[in-house]
Write a structure and sequence with these properties.
By secondary structure, the protein is α/β, with parallel strands linked by helices. It is built from 13 helices and 14 strands. The strands form four sheets. Strands 5-13-14-10-9-6-7-8 form an eight-stranded mixed sheet, sandwiched between helices. Strands 1-2 form a two-stranded antiparallel ribbon. A two-stranded antiparallel sheet has the order 3-4. α3 packs across α13. About 4% of the residues have low confidence.
């Protein structure tokens, strides 16, 4: 960068306490603070050409960090740095057991990278025939509406300043809490666990709903560290805890918050694809001794991210003639259900009316088979519901009364089905 250009950015350098090194990639000055009497931070002392007047001796004792050579450290401060370096190997908590909820290892019978257009036409048609048959025999007519609200969100839902996206998430959260209430799962002395908690919106409103209930706690589980978490706004900090863990490694029996509770109720709104399956395995594995998992309400989505190893409904699929290879194809066909056309709802209706009796430009070729978009959507949706029904069967085999429910209208989100499970003889 020319000196003229660099000078254009000098307005950013407003403090003598920050480094004078200009970061070319970011088009700004380094924002690290400097030691008293210095002009550059330790990271840039030995890289900046403007420091040629400083003796080589000044740099001798700065070395690449042994844990992460992308940054450097003074040798005299190495011991202290290794104890606080973000790259250090952290102690594994007792509740982490690698791969505990992943299921048994399986052979890779097919490549998950195979495109639908590359699949043999006869094999695809045969699978589509199985999908129709399984859906008709096991799923059709079994999914009822359970669209609920909870009063704790009434004021938020009536706030007209919110956009459609915020309103959608609030409607989903309100219905999830309303379902918990209707199923008598908002119990005292309960640990509510939000799996795949994200920014913790569901947990925040759960805590609000339960703040006057005896000894109720909210536990958030997510493998990522996020900013602007909603659970930070929960007033009673003793009632909430967040742990950073991959659900596939989580041992529910060794979580202190779960151990201290009489009941465990699990919720999930961000459990994409296989995350739902490892969550169900985590709950069933953790329910072997105490039988304390009383209820499960999980919004289902992103079936294209399901994989064979953790999928809990393998038995149901195999019993109905669906192989691992066909499962992989189904996880691709589910995209037909919700991927859309890129057109507005109004334009799609107009085109549908105009072209009702003929094939249109909305055709898509899979192999050599032409399937109208409307038919693809039906097939994709049937694939999703079959995978979900297989999960229902898994819960039923493990002591839960389970079902699928439409928990919001499809105009709120096309992913409007949730999986509900209640322990013992409770009816749903």
């Amino acid at each position: 960068m020319s000196e003229h250009k660099k000078n254009e950015f000098k307005a950013e350098k407003t403090s003598d306490k920050t480094c004078k090194h200009f970061v070319q990639r970011r088009k700004r000055y380094c924002r690290m603070t400097v030691a008293k009497g210095q002009e550059y931070c330790g990271e840039h002392m030995n890289t900046n050409p403007e420091l040629s007047h400083i003796s080589e001796e000044s740099f001798k004792n700065r070395i690449p960090c042994p844990l992460d050579p992308k940054h450097t450290v003074y040798m005299w401060n190495l011991k202290k740095h290794l104890n606080i370096c973000n790259a250090r190997v952290k102690e594994v908590p007792s509740y982490i057991e690698k791969g505990r909820n992943l299921g048994e290892e399986v052979s890779n019978a097919t490549s998950s990278c195979t495109k639908l257009s590359e699949i043999d036409e006869s094999a695809l048609n045969e699978l589509i025939g199985k999908v129709h048959k399984i859906y008709d025999n096991h799923v059709d007519g079994t999914i009822k509406e359970m669209i609920c609200t909870h009063p704790v969100l009434n004021a938020e839902l009536s706030n007209e300043s919110y956009g459609s996206k915020s309103t959608k998430h609030l409607a989903q959260t309100s219905s999830i809490l309303g379902c918990l209430d209707q199923l008598d799962l908002l119990l005292p002395k309960t640990c509510f666990i939000e799996f795949g908690a994200g920014k913790g919106q569901v947990s925040f409103w759960l805590a609000e709903a339960m703040k006057d209930t005896e000894q109720s706690t909210v536990l958030l589980v997510d493998k990522a560290s996020l900013r602007h978490k909603k659970d930070n706004k929960i007033e009673d900090r003793n009632s909430v805890q967040r742990i950073r863990a991959d659900i596939s490694d989580l041992d529910l029996d060794k979580l202190e918050a779960a151990q201290l509770a009489d009941n465990i109720v699990a919720v999930g709104k961000h459990l994409c694809g296989g995350a739902t399956d490892v969550t169900l395995r985590c709950l069933i594995n953790g329910n072997q001794t105490r039988k304390c998992v009383k209820g499960i309400v999980i919004a289902l989505c992103c079936h294209h991210q399901c994989t064979w190893r953790p999928f809990v409904g393998k038995k149901f699929l195999l019993d109905n003639g669906v192989t691992q290879q066909e499962f992989d194809i189904m996880t691709k066909m589910v995209g037909w259900a919700v991927c859309g056309t890129g057109m507005s709802r109004e334009l799609r209706k107009e085109i549908a009316l105009r072209n009702e009796q003929k094939e249109t430009a909305d055709e898509r070729t899979s192999g050599t088979t032409k399937i109208l978009r409307e038919e693809r959507e039906r097939i994709g949706m049937k694939c999703k519901r079959i995978l979900d029904h297989a999960r229902v069967q898994y819960l039923s085999e493990n002591g839960f009364t389970a079902s699928l429910k439409y928990y919001v209208k499809s105009d709120v989100t096309p992913e409007n089905v949730c999986l509900i499970g209640v322990w013992s003889n409770n009816k749903i």
